[in-house]
Amino acid sequence: MPSSIEIPLSIALGIGLAAATGFRIFLPLLVAGVAANAGVIPLHDSFQWLASTAALLTLGTAALVEALAYYVPGVDHLLDLLATPAAMAAGIIISASVMADIPSQIMWPVAIIAGGGIAGLTKGSAALLRAKTGVATGGLGNPVISTGETIGAVALSLLAIALPFIALLAVLTLVIWAARKAGRRLFRRPRPG
To answer: Is the pLDDT of residue 187 over 70?
Structure first.
């Protein structure tokens, strides 16, 4: 039976890692797999494969290809379109994988709603930022955004593993900021012309 702190800790870890999949799909899975392989974080029995050598090699290759593809003009925008559902799926998988001692009837709803939801929100926000930057800079600013997303994926993954509650707080702060920003845009009054 998990202790009273283990359940919220696992959920915070899962949500932090899921949010990171919105920046890069494979990097957080790779970081979690390496951490599990090293014994730093536990994995749910159904997800032990994530720490296997074959999975780590595959995820490492996929993470490298994904990160490099975002530097190719045009491909980055195509990836943003295709990656949103994939990020949500990865968010569900990664959040469920680290909820090692949580009963399935709690784990799956939390993974689907919180993990998939936050991954989709992070991915959507990043894609919107890339689109705005692309328009404002003629695409020249997109490599900067790509670099920031890759660094963000690694940093948020490591923060989620080291300090899950701090990572959850950072994710919640990001969500509130994005919601306020979106709300201001939606409800802005047109200027009299």
So the answer is: no
- The more confidently predicted of residues 68 and 188 is 68
Are 92 and 116 in contact by the 8 Å Cβ rule? The answer is yes
Distance from chain centroid for Cα 176 = 16
| H runs (alpha helix) in 38-163 | 53-69, 75-97, 104-110, 117-137, 142-162
Token pair of 142 as six digits: 């997109």
DSSP-derived secondary structure letter, 63: H
Distance from C-alpha of 158 to C-alpha of 41, rounded to nearest angstrom: 11
Encoded tokens for 171: 């994710």
Considering the chain, what percentage of its residues have pLDDT values greater than 90? 59
- pTM of the prediction? 0.88
Rg (CA), the chain: 17
